[in-house]
Design brief:
It is a single chain. The chain is α/β, with parallel strands linked by helices and about 150 residues long. It has 5 helices and 5 strands. The chain is about 50% helix and about 15% strand. A 3-stranded parallel beta sheet has the order 4-3-5, sandwiched between helices. The protein is extended and about 70 Å long. The termini are far apart.
Length: about 150
């Protein structure tokens, strides 16, 4: 396959990459083990080391398991770009679940459809986004009740 865009690459950018057959969880564990004091995240002048992030990831994964989330389950993440997202994402991967990304501006029928179509068991979000969620769920329940009423007629 011809790749004309590679002629514009700065040198020494490789044209091909080989990715290891591994999981995000294994990569994260390896990094925590070899560099626990290194800064993993820096946000609003606050640094979080890999050790601290790992502790948060483990607590979050435990919380997901306590909600009944297990390998293969879908977990919807409706989170902004902040340190909460990578913590939640690594925790979801840690237990073998699958991330369903939901944009923070998603609402109404689109929100309900995403949850329904993906079979997400849990939604992880911030209270900031609850008004959109409440409106979406009410809309979905209202539509369901209308369909049930039509069946009864």
């Amino acid at each position: 396959m011809e790749r004309p865009w590679t002629s514009r690459y700065d040198h020494p950018v490789a044209e091909h990459f080989t990715f290891p057959e591994t999981t995000l969880d294994r990569i994260f564990k390896g990094t925590v083990a070899s560099h626990p004091g290194w800064v993993a995240l820096s946000y609003n002048d606050e640094d979080t080391t890999y050790r601290k992030l790992n502790d948060r990831v483990n607590r979050f994964a435990h919380g997901l398991r306590s909600l009944g989330v297990s390998k293969g389950d879908r977990v919807a993440l409706m989170l902004p770009t902040s340190p909460v997202y990578p913590m939640a994402a690594v925790a979801v991967h840690k237990i073998g679940a699958v991330i369903v990304n939901v944009g923070v501006t998603t609402k109404g029928p689109e929100f309900a459809l995403i949850l329904q179509a993906t079979g997400a068991r849990v939604l992880v979000t911030l209270d900031l986004f609850l008004p959109n969620i409440h409106a979406s769920l009410f809309l979905n329940i209202h539509e369901y009740l209308n369909k049930v009423a039509e069946m009864d007629e």
